[in-house]
Amino acid sequence: MGLKLLTVPILGTFVLPISIVNLNFQSGDIVLATYQSYISDDIATEASSSYGVQTVYFENDRDILNGFRTGAYDLAIMSSSTLEEAIKKNIVKQIQWDKLPTVKDLLKVEDGNGSSHQTSGSGNTNNQNTRNWEKVFSPIVTQFFKQKPELAQYGLPYFLSYLLFAYRCQNCDKEIKTQENLSWQEKFKKIIEHEEFKNNNPFKLGIIEDEVTILSLSKLASQENNKFNEQNWKVEENKPFNFFDKYKDLSKLGVSSRTRGNSMFLNSDSALMSEMLTKKQLDGVFMYNGDALYSYQEIRNEKEGGEVQDFKILEPTPSLWLLDQIAISSKVSESKENEIYKFLDKLLFEGAIKKTQSDQAQGQQSQNSEAQEKSWAWQNFDYLGYTPTLKDMQETIKSKHEEFKKKKEKSEQQTQSSEKSEDEKEYDDLTIQLLFGRQNEDQCKKPVSNGQPQTTENQQSENTKCKILFESGMTDNQNLDLALAFQRWKNNWF
C-alpha cells in the first residue's frame, strides 16, 4: 500500500480542508473524493487529463455525506457501512451497470431458453440481485451483494480488506501449533503473554484508533469458543445497543489501558502503525491486511534470512471483512454521469478482466497476465496493496503463486541456490495469506436464501466453513452514542 500522508499535490490532485464545500473547479470537472492513499498518483493525474476527474482527499469517509449533500463531490470511495448510511439519506444514485461496457455482458443472466437478459440499473433490489456477480467479482464480494443487495444497487466494488493481528515473534506460535483446538482469543493471549515478553520487556501492542474497528474487535472478543452469536454482533436500527459495555468486552482479551499500561498504543494513523511494526517498535498490531502486507514487504525488502521469519499473522474467527466501494452523488447531472461511467469502467474493469469464450471464438486471444497488469485496476492494486475485488485478478495472483511454487520445487531439486525470484518476492506464501486470508473464500460460494445463510441441519456444517462477518451502517444517533462510548472507554472510565 502506498502509505503517504503528506505529499506535494500533483496535477489533478488536491489536498483540501474538509470544511471547503465550494471547490474552485470548472463546471464540467468531475470531483472524486477519497482517502489520500486510496488511488495511485499516476492514475489520478491521467484521470484528470483524460476524463476531467479532479481528486480531493478527506480524513474520514463520513465527510462524504456532507460533500454529497452539498454537491461538492460527484463520486467518492467509501466503506460499505458509510454507503448504507448514504443510501438511507437518499444522497446516492443507483448504479447503471449497463453503462459499464467491460462487464455488462458478463453480468447478464441466461433464461431457460439459453437467451440472456440484463436488469436495468434502476430496477428494484431483487432484480439487482439476479445479476451474475460471480462472473466478475470474488466470492466474498458476491457474499456482500447477496447479504446486502442494496450495496450492489448503489456502489461499485473498489477493494476488500479484513481485520487481523500482525505480530513479530520468533517462537510465539510453537505452543499454539500443538493446541490447534484453541480459540483465536486463547491464541492471542498466549502470544502477548509469551515468556519472550515477560519482566521488563512486555509485549508492545498497537491498535488502530478507529471507533468502528475497535467496536468490531470488541464484539469478536465477546464470542465464546468461536461460536458466532448474531445478537452480540448486529447493531439494529432503532434498537438500543450498549456500545460502552461492548467496548469493555475487549478486556476479555487482556486489552485495556489498565492491564497493558504503557505497553498499549492507540493511534489512528495506519501508516505510523505499519512503520512501527516494521521497525519492531511495536511487537503486534490489530490492523487491516493491506497495512500488514505493507509492513511485511518493507521487512522483506530491507532484511534477508531469518529476520522475516518472525513476521506472523493471526486472524480472528469469524473473519471480519470490509468492502470499499465507489458511489455517485444524487446531484450529478446526466451529462456528467456519462463521462463518470467511462472513467469508472477504465479505473475498475478495462483490461483487468480476461476476454470471454465468445471473444476467443472470434479469434481474440485471452489477455495474458502481462497485458492484464497494465490496466488501471492492476496499477491501483500495486499501489494500494489491498485485496482486489475482481475474480480474474485474484485468480491471476493465485496462479502466479502456484507457478512459482512449481518452479521452486524444480529448482530445489537441481540446485541449492538461495536467490529468490521476482515472483517469490511478490507472491510468496505469506503474501497470498495476507491478501486472501486463511479462511478459504471458495467456501463462501455456498447458497444463500433471502439474504441469510441456509441453516438447515444438512447445511450448517458447510456454512460454518465460510466464517466471515460484515459491519453495517448506523443511524446518526447511534454514531453519536458510539463516539461518546469510545471516548469513555479510551479515557479508562471502567
From TrEMBL:
Q: Which parts of this chain are annotated as the region Disordered?
A: 111-130, 402-427, 441-463
Q: Where is the composition biased (Basic and acidic residues)?
A: 402-412
Instruction: Supply the Pfam families for this chain.
Output: Lipoprotein_8 (PF02030)
Corresponding gene?
potD
Q: Which SUPFAM superfamilies match?
A: Periplasmic binding protein-like II
> In its UniProt entry, what is this protein called?
Spermidine/putrescine import binding protein
What Gene3D superfamilies does the entry give? Periplasmic binding protein-like II
* InterPro entries membership: Uncharacterised_lipoprot_MG045
Q: What is the lineage of its organism?
A: Bacteria, Bacillati, Mycoplasmatota, Mollicutes, Mycoplasmataceae
Q: Where is the composition biased (Polar residues)?
A: 449-463
Q: Give me the stretches of Low complexity compositional bias.
A: 118-130
What cellular component terms from Gene Ontology apply here?
A: membrane
